[in-house]
Design a protein that fits this description.
heterodimer, A: about 300 residues, mainly alpha, MetI-like fold, 13 helices, globular, B: about 325 residues, two-stranded antiparallel sheet, 11 helices, about 0% strand
């Protein structure tokens, strides 16, 4: 079949003239600029990903060098003394992430439920905005804030005349917990909102109470997504250094008492990397390897949980 | 009617003996309380910073922002006199330079991921860019300090030797090459904010209605012309929002910068000399400070808090506005 265009009526063709045929040089120019710009976008993507590989490469190569049982079972030795490990820092990080979860998860998940189930009003809008603000506040300011509400007053109340400031894992956990809230809250809200309305209506029609249907049925259906949010939040705070500098501070000793100052992986990496000692620098790479591995595993788990989600 | 066996009748176990109205009320108010906690937290944070900084605010006023003096209480000539200018300068310049590097690359990546990449490549590439955002700041700092700076040294030495005498450009490359410098900080910072810019821009570009693209193709546009014209124009305010969001990240970034910038209060134009930012000053000095110095550092924190809040609010409003235009829904 040979499709032919209907001849334009003479009235239209007087006013609407067909475009002049495009010169081949203009066509070439357009084609070339099309390909050049597409190529540049691809190049930008490659440039964006190179640093990732460089960072992961160095962290792995330099980190593997100091991976031995002692790294996980010994505390750091004084500068200049080879050997030793980051046991105290790994334990400290786990402890403070645990404390942070005790604060961040209830507030984040229940707050998120409020936003999705009851928050279609002005108050919900304000809370959402506050969550975004909290998410955007630099982590070091959270550290300064927690220092002034949870470290300084406690020190003033308890210390003798010239004692040092009493930094504590409690304060570190509080700072990290505050940082967790926005991520957990917004993911919970978004995921819970995806649960079909019919599930809620079904539960209520069977005579269930609102609180029970929300916690059991709605949250149960949204479980995978909420777990993703929680894992991502934990992955984010596990690597935070700045909020811990003035709250949990640092220590060279193993410590399980949350009211004492406590080492953490990020702070130990920072202090070991900035020390002039070569062996401490090497240990910092080891710490970074463990930290990045932890975060990668959490991120992959989070992705897996999302994939398994069936809301 | 079908008679239900008695043991199957109650589908939901009730442990509480309170009636449903009370428990629902408790549930509603407790979730409301938890979400209100965020509001209280932000307000408390602002008030607490202000009150801790108030001795300095009363002593120095707004002159604090432009003064370059930082002398602690043991300084014989100007005891307890503080000013924030070099740190504000360092924060603004390092963030601006980082944007200069990260915006073209981030935007190109976003366009590639949203429009050009083959389907099978999109998910793994997007995941890699997201991974870039997941690597902790302190690891970038470690890498920047122990790998990037030694690698930059030859370039810096060359620039210091040769570009110094060039008329205008020379101002940016004055002084000796020191390794830890504004240049290193801007590079590391650019790497760190890139994923934020590209991830948000990609979402915004994806949100452009397909009719825009199809109309452009229908008029005979090449793929790039379709991107440049209708797509980017529709996504413009969202992309600006993404860039400002990246700027907010850059302004508040602490650890990586502290480890590579050298922490010297220079407000000269040289990219080769060490500098300091508001956040790096806090990270280095806050733990040991007390009295007037601590109050001045709190003032620094308040300035940083103010800057990031304003910048973040702008970004959120732009993105929110954009998604309302495009989708007709509120996705703040």
């Amino acid at each position: 079949m040979n499709p032919t265009l209907p001849a334009p009526s003479s009235a239209v063709s007087d006013r609407v003239r067909p475009l002049p045929p495009m010169s081949s040089s203009l066509m070439t120019k357009r084609r070339v600029s099309n390909n050049v710009m597409k190529g540049l976008c691809g190049l930008a993507t490659i440039l964006a990903i190179i640093p990732l590989f460089l960072v992961l490469y160095y962290v792995t190569i330099q980190g593997i060098k100091v991976m031995n049982p002692a790294f996980f079972t010994e505390v750091q030795r004084p500068a200049g003394d080879p050997g030793g490990g980051f046991k105290h820092a790994i334990v400290g990080t786990l402890m403070m992430v645990g404390l942070a979860s005790c604060i961040g998860l209830p507030v984040g998940i229940l707050g998120g439920i409020y936003l999705s189930e009851f928050g279609q009003n002005r108050f919900g809008f304000i809370v959402r905005f506050a969550t975004d603000v909290l998410n955007g506040i630099p982590s070091i300011i959270i550290g300064v804030f927690v220092y002034s509400i949870a470290v300084l007053p406690v020190s003033r109340a308890t210390r003798e005349w010239n004692d040092p400031i009493t930094f504590s894992a409690w304060a570190g956990g509080l700072a990290l917990g505050i940082m967790m809230i926005p991520t957990v809250m917004r993911t919970t809200e978004e995921i819970v909102r995806l649960v079909p309305q019919s599930l809620r209506e079904g539960a209520l029609a069977l005579g269930d109470t609102r609180w029970h249907s929300t916690l059991k049925i709605v949250l149960g259906a949204a479980k995978g997504g909420v777990i993703t949010g929680v894992l991502l939040a934990i992955a984010r705070i596990a690597g935070e250094t700045a909020p811990l500098l003035f709250t949990a501070a640092d220590s060279l000793y193993m410590n399980l008492n949350p009211s004492k100052q406590t080492a953490s992986l990020p702070v130990r990496i920072y202090l070991s990397a900035t020390s002039p000692d070569d062996h401490w620098n090497a240990l910092a790479w080891g710490g970074a390897f463990v930290l990045v591995a932890m975060i990668l595993i959490l991120s992959l788990l989070a992705r897996y949980a999302t994939r398994a989600r069936n809301v | 009617m079908i008679a239900t066996p008695p043991e199957k009748r109650s589908l939901f176990k009730r442990q509480s003996t309170l009636d449903a109205r009370t428990t629902d009320g408790i549930f509603y108010w407790s979730t409301l309380g938890f979400s209100a906690l965020v509001l209280l937290l932000v307000a408390w944070l602002g008030i607490q910073l202000y009150s801790a900084a108030s001795p300095s605010i009363h002593k120095f006023g707004l002159g604090f922002l432009t003064s370059s003096m930082w002398s602690t209480s043991d300084d014989p000539i100007h005891p307890d006199t503080y000013g924030a200018w070099p740190y504000i300068y360092g924060t603004l310049v390092s963030s601006f330079l980082a944007l200069l590097l990260a915006v073209p690359i981030g935007l190109g990546t976003a366009i590639y991921l949203a429009e050009l990449a083959p389907k099978w490549l999109r998910t793994p590439l997007s995941f890699m860019v997201e991974l870039l955002a997941a690597v902790p700041s302190v690891v970038y700092g470690l890498w920047g300090r122990l790998v990037l700076i030694p690698a930059l040294m030859p370039l810096q030495t060359w620039l210091s030797d040769h570009a110094d005498s060039v008329p205008v450009v020379g101002r940016f490359f004055g002084g000796a090459a020191t390794g830890q410098s504004m240049m290193a900080a801007a590079l590391v910072l650019a790497i760190m904010i890139l994923p934020f810019i590209s991830a948000v821009s990609r979402e915004v570009i994806k949100a452009v209605p397909p009719t825009q693209r199809e109309a452009a193709f229908g008029l005979g546009a090449t793929h790039w012309e379709a991107i440049k014209g209708p797509i980017l124009r529709t996504a413009r305010s969202g992309i600006i929002g993404a860039i400002i969001l990246g700027l907010a990240r850059a302004l508040g970034e602490t650890m990586a910068i502290t480890m590579v910038i050298g922490n010297a209060p220079n407000a000269d134009f040289s990219l080769l000399s060490p500098a300091a930012t508001l956040s790096s000053k806090l990270a280095v000095e806050f733990a040991e400070a007390s009295g007037g110095q601590q109050s001045a550092l709190m003032y620094l924190a308040l300035v940083l808090f103010g800057i990031t809040i304003v910048v973040n609010a702008c970004a959120r409003l732009l993105i929110w506005n954009m998604s309302r235009q495009v989708k007709g829904s509120t996705r703040a």
